[in-house]
């Protein structure tokens, strides 16, 4: 039967965190052991804060730490995958945001171009409207002038009775009185 040695784990040059993990591993092996004399001896050594250095205890501890490392590695792989997924989602989201922003900027430019075109059309139409208004005013003035000219030449060609002249005079004097007030 191989000899076993018990040592103080602080002699192993481990940090306090590593010592804690070693004690947890030793305790897990001792409590999960197969009831052999070496697992009972390891359990007694562990309860006294000591570390058992026999072959079967070291193999059991090595297997335990390998399982813990495998579990940690699986968690790391899972978290790494989740990080990649999250990064991709953020990248896609950022890409979508950038795409949306670019689309909105383009839309804004198009709206501004349309506004510029509408303002230009508005100014052009306003200018045309003013020209039409001026032409209409001149046309109306020309029609009034033609009517006055036509009625003036018409009144000279026909003789008016004295009564109609008196009425015109009366109207003229009446309207001149209104203007004075």
UniProtKB/TrEMBL annotation:
Region Disordered: start-end pairs: 142-181
Location within or outside the cell: Cytoplasm
Presence of the UniProt keyword Cytoplasm in the record: yes
InterPro entries (UniProt xref): CNL1 (IPR034455)
Basic and acidic residues: bias regions: 165-175
Keywords: Cytoplasm
Keyword Cytoplasm part of the UniProt annotation: yes
Domain of life: Eukaryota
Biased composition (Basic residues): 151-164
Main location class: cytoplasm
Function description: Component of the biogenesis of lysosome-related organelles complex-1 (BLOC-1), a complex that is involved in endosomal cargo sorting.
Family: Belongs to the BLOC1S4 family.
Protein name: Biogenesis of lysosome-related organelles complex 1 subunit CNL1
Species of provenance: Sporothrix eucalyptigena
